[in-house]
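Suppose a colleague, Dr. K., hands you the sequence of a protein chain of 294 amino acids and asks what its three-dimensional shape might be. Before reaching for any lab equipment, you can write down a predicted structure in C-alpha cell form. Begin with the sequence itself:
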Amino acid sequence: MVEDKSIGSKVFNVINGIIMAVIIAVTVYPLLYVLALSLSSAEYVQAGLVNLIPKGFNLQAYKQVLGDEYFWKSYGNTVLYTVVGTTINLVLTSTFAFCLSRKNLIFRKQLTVLIIFTMFFSGGIIPNFILVKNLGIYNTMWAVVLPGAINTYNMIIVRTFMQQLPEEIFESGRIDGANDLQLFAKIVVPLSKPALATIGLYYAVDHWNAYFYPMLYLKDKVNYPLQVLLKEMLVEQDFSNMSQSAAEIMGNIQPTTDMLMGASIVIALIPILCVYPFIQRYFVQGVMIGSLKG
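The predicted structure, expressed as C-alpha cells, is then:
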C-alpha cells in the first residue's frame, strides 16, 4: 500500500492526532485525579493542594475501605451480578441472533420488526417496576440481571455477524447429521467469538457500572452492588458503615470523604481494566464485521 503524502493527508493526520490527544486527556485526567486523591494525605486533600500527583503519599483510604465489610459485600454482589448477568446476556443474545440469522425461520421479518420496535418504545419505569414486583423477584439478584437480558442493538450486531457465515458450513454440518442446536454449539459459537467477545465486554461493563436498576429494585443494603454504594458515598457522603476501628490504626488524621471515594473508585476499576486487554483484539473485527449489513 502506497502511503498518501499529500498536504491534505498530512493536515488530516495532524488534526486527527490533536483530537485524539484531547479525547485521551479528557478521559485519563479524571482517573489520574481520583488516583492522586486516594493516595494523598488528608491534610493536603483538605487544603485542595492535590492535582494529578499524590502529595504526602499514604494508603490510609485503601486500608479503611478494604477493612469495611459492606464494601466487600457490595463488591461480591457486583461480581455475582456481572458474571450471572453477562452469562444470561450472551446465551439469550446469541441464541436469539442465531434464530433470526436463519432465512428459513417462520415470521423472521415480523419478529425482526418487533425487536427493532423495542429500541424506540418501552413500557417505562413504572410498568417495569410493577412487572418486577408481580414476578416476585423484587429485592433479589434477578431483578437486576433479567430486565436487560437482551440488548437489541447487540443482538442485531451478532445476528448480522452470523448471517455472513458461509452457508456451505451449515450444509456440510447437516450432511453429517447435525441438528440446529449442534450447528449452533459446534460451528456458529466458535466462529462468532469476535462478536460475542465484543458484546460480552459491553454487557459486563454495563453490569459492573449499573446502579439505576439496583437502586430501583433493591431495598436491602446487603444486596447493593458496588456502584450503589459509591453513589451513596458521592451523593449522600454516607461513610457511617466504614470501619470505625480504622481511626485507631491510622492515628488522629482520618481519610476525607474524597479520599475514601477515590480509593473505592480505583478498586472498582481494577477488574475491568484487567479484563479489557484480553478482549480488545476482538473489538474491531467483531464490531466492523457485524455492521457491514443491516
